[in-house]
Amino acid sequence: MARERLYLFDTTLRDGAQTNGVDFTLADKLAIAGMLDELGVDYVEAGYPGANPIDTSFFSERRPMRARVTAFGMTRRPGRSASNDPGLVALLDAQADAICFVAKSWDYHVRIALETTEEENLAAIRDSVRAAKAKGREVLLDCEHFFDGYKANPAYALACAKAAYDEGARWVVLCDTNGGALPHEVEDIVGEVCKVIPGDRVGIHAHNDTEQAVANSFAAIRAGARQIQGTLNGLGERCGNANLVSIIPTLKLKPEYADKFEINVSDAALGRIVRISHGLDELLNRAPDRHAPYVGESAFATKAGIHASAIVKEPKTYEHIAPERVGNKRKLLVSDQAGRSNVLAELERIGLSLDKDDPRVMRLLDEVKEREAIGYAYEAADASFELLARRMLGQVPHYFDVEKFDVNIEQRNNAKGERVTVSQAVVKIKVGDEELISVAEGIGPVNALDLALRKDLGKYQSFITGLTLTDYRVRILNGGTQAVTRVLIESTDETGEHWRTVGVSANIIDASFQALMDSIVYKLMKSGAPA
Ligand SMILES: [Zn+2]
Questions:
Q1: Residues 331 and 325 sit within 8 Å (Cβ to Cβ)
Q2: How far is the CA of 207 from the centre of ligand 1 (A)?
């Protein structure tokens, strides 16, 4: 039986960006967009062009992706024409495949918040959809507060949805904007909507204020909706959005959905969902939720005891899915098998194919485990992992040695009599037989060290001129007197590639040095610098 296609719409970069404490840089957005593309979502809503400089620059050029890059914004303002609304014009000019408009669908909001008439709001929806279609964009309409609106005035809420649909919008998305709807209500109301608008044109956008965003999304699917909106790790304002990291495995692994529906996420991508989920946490500089369904470290951890031998004999008796399917591990046994396949998958991703029985796979796994135990995190440090793997295979040339470095911080009065703190680094490098000494001052000790390191690499200098550090993050692990510092550095170069490296030490300068060195060596390697 042919399965029906379900579409996944990710809004981590737009709605998720509203999360308290989350501030995405452009580089973050590009990195997350890459993760989403790897995962296989159908749409990546990347932001609100015109609303802030980062979103505007994201949409200032084509971002080639498998997913449809979607720009978010409002329908034309009441009382203006589409061509005379600067917000709408910016949205139409955005380099995007699709445009998602948000419009009010609750008559009360139309009158009170928008201070306009119900008819003018419908006209704004029609005009905006028409203008975006004329620009060749795929169009979606987010019906804000749809469920509350429907409860208050079903005819008007439906009229808003219908206006977009009749004008040719690809999707009409029903939003539970304040997250207060319950699954049975969502199922009933979506069912009613699908009598008027075909389900394969209807989407669900659920918030998690009663912790039922995932359940509400599935309720909508059961009632006929065929697009699910959500975010990675359920990121989002207040209590978050529907968590795609929970929804995807359920769609792929639970027969009730898997037998009926097809999504664009491959089995292989599903096997990387733990890494993607944790990779996002690393970017956000926060610890992954150990108890997250499917992907948490404890999701398949069973306390040893009377169950232990039964689990070893027949894991199915205790687990609702095989943890390997989502790239997770059974906690009870130290599952070398699962670890090995993770490492193999990672190696494949960087273009190294080793036989699964190659002893070097186990050696690399052991090394990764040992390093992770002391604080390294490779899920968000792709370049450091690649270097580790290639070093073990003897594929990383020995470019140069840092014989010594010295970082000095001085506080003194400058010529104007102001108190200033100055950082200076001296680095002594040996390239072949050549000894090079560089000195640099920087904003802070790490910056000084970075500048000195990259000032003169002798015959390798020309290979690193395009190298730029775009981000630097520090996390203190296991606090207290035993505290260890993890530094994550993100770099880019003239080709536009981004890569991340990691360093761990009790000393923040040392941890930074490791991550800087990995970044430079990675750049030399990828530029094909000769040994
Ligand atoms: Zn939302």
A1: no
A2: 6
Report CA(216)–ligand 1 centroid distance (Å). Answer: 14
* Cα-based distances in Å from 312 to 78, 315, 335, 336, 365: 65, 6, 11, 13, 22
Q: How many Cβ atoms from other residues are within 10 Å of residue 273's Cβ? A: 25
- Ligand 1 centre to CA of 208 (Å) is 10
Distance 153 CA to ligand 1 centre (A): 21
Distance between Cα 5 and ligand 1 center (Å): 23
What is the Å distance from ligand 1's center to 241 Cα?
7
CA distance 353 to 503: 26
Q: Count CB atoms within 10 A of the CB of residue 496.
A: 8
* 143 Cα distance to chain centroid: 25
CA of 74 to the centre of ligand 1 (A): 13
Per-residue pLDDT tens digits for 368-417: 888 888 888 887 788 999 999 999 989 999 999 999 999 999 999 999 99
Q: What is d(CA 80, CA 467) in angstroms, rounded to the nearest whole number? A: 47
Cβ-proximal residues to 345 (8 Å cutoff; 6+ apart), any chain: 268, 271, 272, 327
Ligand 1 center–CA 205 separation, angstroms? 7
Inform me whether the pLDDT recorded for 479 exceeds 70.
no
Q: How far is the CA of 197 from the centre of ligand 1 (A)?
A: 22
> Which H/E stretch holds residue 516?
helix 508-526
Q: Which helix (H) or strand (E) holds 53?
A: helix 53-58
The three-state secondary structure class of 390 is helix
Q: Which of 380, 510, 491, 524 is nearest to 446 (CA)?
A: 510
Distances from the Cα of 298 to the Cα of 188, 289, 336, angstroms: 35, 9, 17
